[in-house]
Write a structure and sequence with these properties.
five-stranded parallel sheet, Rossmann fold, Dna Ligase, domain 1, eight-stranded antiparallel sheet, binds adenosine-5'-diphosphate, 25% strand, 3 domains, D-amino Acid Aminotransferase, Chain A, domain 1
């Protein structure tokens, strides 16, 4: 096992990695930006080092400074969390060169999967089904139109280096290509420093279904559970569940087997996720995320496997302690990402100070968070407040628990997406498992969110006026007592 692990991340995922270290008896080192000097994760670690100003380009993405801190502090492993440097092949390589273990896959695997075109090509070679499209970069509109004509509209233009739902545009007809191609190339260049784009068929009524995998350094690969992540905004996940409501044991075995085939084809190691699009009985490879996912919590809840701890064991060269047959799915888990964002304003981030905070609790509830009362959600980083995950014996119980947990959750000071989660959870289509990535638009969820926000505001106002009333009565009683006491004192003189 490691002597000491540096966690090159912040917020809840830094705490998650440090929790794993603590259970394994491994001391931890945090690195923090100026904006995070009072953050919980920096206090949680055994040691913490400042690494620069708030903008991540000057702190959490500063590879050399982070490697220096690792060396100075005697850390022999770096856990990258998700985001920031977690899928950065150059950083993984720097760790390798400095004889620090990067807790993730080898740098060459990260590099290959960082290019959506290279990933598609590798999967086609391995016999994994991919979305119909091209394996070569698109240079001009004529070429794009020719390809789109052959695969059929709508198509999606994608940045090869894209991620986080950025660098994608759906094209419904050939007249839209000129503008769309220029736009995506320029987004790709500015966001990822690489303007390479390619085209895929835009899959109709898609569900996003992914498989968590674990692979050790001895060639053993297992899939740990499937997850349904179809509730998305701007191609980014908001609610995930494990397992997928459409999963059957046969389909799981088939898709899970394909995920293993994909992992083996690229020499995968450590924890990763093979993402698929599923539509009308067919499924297609989308990409491999070469890190621990935000939504790993629900896999942990239904399998009992501690993915963060197993990442550390694998990185140290340990063999997987279980085989595919040993892994069982028990019950149902759902995660809601509680973000400081406004669902009524196109989910725009709503940074600011948390004035009052009470998270949910009770049976079957797991909270992964790094915030507290007085904490400021910074505009420099993502707007996540917490990951609220619940477990139930079946989907019905998990939904009821999530609704109860959302009812308990109170965040005051910033606008949150809690009303959005309430609206989805109570919707008949969600309850019946009828999901696609267009769920929000197909079912006018935002109209329902408006009703919930109004209801919550009314309840809040009633509560506030009841409290005011109560406060006035308390003030009147204490004034009366004060008068009585001073009269008594006067009498006694
Ligand atoms: P990123 O790397 O930015 O996360 P992905 O390729 O993983 O991008 O896709 C993110 C989401 O975008 C998917 O979950 C899905 O909702 C949508 N998407 C991507 N490709 C397609 C496609 N070919 N057809 C339909 N939806 C797609």
């Amino acid at each position: 096992m490691f002597n000491k692990v540096l966690v090159a991340n912040r917020g809840e995922i830094a705490i998650r990695a440090m929790r794993a270290c603590r259970e394994l008896g491994v001391p931890t080192v945090a690195v923090y930006s100026e904006a995070d000097k009072n953050a919980i994760f920096a206090k949680y670690a055994d040691d913490a080092y400042p690494i620069g100003p708030a903008p991540s380009s000057q702190s959490y993405l500063n590879m050399d400074v982070i490697i220096d801190v690792a060396k100075k502090s005697g850390a022999d492993g770096i856990h990258p969390g998700y985001g920031f440097l977690s899928e950065n092949a150059v950083f993984a390589k720097k760790c390798e060169e400095n004889e620090i273990t990067f807790i993730g896959p080898p740098s060459n695997v990260i590099e290959q999967m960082g290019s959506k075109i290279a990933a598609r090509t590798a999967m086609i070679k391995a016999g994994v089904p991919v979305v119909p499209g091209t394996e070569k970069p698109i240079e001009d509109v004529e070429e794009a139109v020719e390809i789109a004509d052959s695969i059929g509209y709508p198509v999606i233009i994608k940045a090869s280096a894209g991620g986080g739902g950025i660098g994608m545009k759906i094209v419904y007809s050939k007249d839209e290509f000129g503008h769309a191609l220029t736009m995506i190339k320029s987004v790709a260049k500015s966001a990822f420093g690489d303007s390479t784009v390619f085209i895929e068929k835009y899959v109709d009524e898609p569900r996003h279904i992914e498989f968590q995998i674990l692979a050790d350094k001895h060639g053993n690969v297992v899939y740990v559970s499937d997850r349904e992540c179809s509730i998305q905004r701007r191609h980014q996940k908001l609610i995930e569940e494990a397992p997928s409501p459409i999963m059957t044991p046969e389909l799981r075995e088939e898709m899970g087997g394909t995920a293993i085939k994909a992992a083996k084809a690229i020499g995968y190691e450590n924890a990763g996720t093979v993402e698929f699009l599923y539509s009308k009985g067919e499924y297609y490879f989308l990409e491999v995320n070469t890190r621990l996912q935000v939504e790993h919590t629900i896999t942990e809840l239904v399998t009992g496997i501690d993915l963060a701890k197993d990442q550390m064991h694998i990185a140290c060269g340990d063999r997987l302690p279980y085989s595919q047959e040993d892994i069982k799915i028990n019950g149902w888990a759902i995660e809601c990402r509680i973000n400081a964002e406004d669902p009524l304003n196109d989910f725009a981030p709503s940074p600011g100070k948390i004035r009052r905070y009470r998270s949910a609790g009770g049976p079957g509830v797991r909270i992964d968070s790094g915030v507290h009362v007085g904490y400021t959600i910074s505009p420099y980083y993502d707007s996540m407040i917490s990951k609220l995950s619940v477990w139930g014996r079946d989907r019905e119980e998990a939904i009821a628990r999530m609704e109860r947990a959302l009812y308990e959750y109170v965040v005051i000071g910033v606008t949150t997406n809690i009303p959005f989660h309430k609206a989805v959870l109570r919707h008949e289509a969600f309850r019946s498992g009828d999901l696609t990535t267009h769920f929000i638009d197909d079912y006018n969820i935002i109209d329902e969110v408006k009703n919930i926000v109004k209801d919550d505001a009314e309840k809040g106002a009633t509560l506030a006026s009841a409290l005011d009333n109560c406060n006035q009565k308390v003030a009147a009683v204490s004034a009366a007592i004060g008068a009585y006491v001073s009269a008594a004192k006067d009498q006694a003189k």
